[in-house]
Amino acid sequence: MTFITELENTFAASSNAENALSMAKYMKDLFPFYGIKTDERRAILKSVCKKHQAEIDSNARTIAWELFLKKERELQYCGIEIIIKSLKNNYIIEDIVWIEKLLITNSWWDSVDTISKYILGSYLEQFPTEIATVVQRFSNAENMWLNRSVILFQLGYKSKTDFHLLQSLCLKHSHSNEFFIRKAIGWALREYAKTDPEAVREFVLQSNLKPLSKKEALKNI
């Protein structure tokens, strides 16, 4: 039995119809769910991975992409988590092609935020010379989720955050009426405020950001 087949069978056996309905509703009914909560899902994934580790090690990208194309959201989450674990510090420069595909496929805030921080962020940390090219392409894209991803990719960078770049992206998208863009601007600034609160406060007070972005950015200062 292949890894994906066993994972699907185990999830199906562990499904919970009541949870599935509430989880789908929370996600605006964009995706069906097995109804498996996060801790149980991760425990199942860990157990099945142990049985098929060699298969995963040799085919992580293919397996992750196949999972991400499945209809159930839990399988899509597993695809993301396999990439995070398997490819950290082991990306190749061409991986940006399918990272972009991940961001624009089955897109919603839950997947995009995780991919942005833990996959795109890790990729660009490994290949910093690609930052300018990727940021320009994604920030100029018509796809809102690509725009959001480059606002958020530095979420885990802390003191290594390029605050000048973050400021430029916030200003570039400051007039957006998209809720998810306004929220991302505030979130990214709020996160960096843990490192340099005065710099964030000064930037926000001097910038013409939307009220939601300002509120989110200054929430903990």
From TrEMBL:
This is DNA alkylation repair protein. InterPro entries: ARM-type_fold (IPR016024), DNA_alkylation (IPR014825). It comes from Flavobacterium ammonificans.
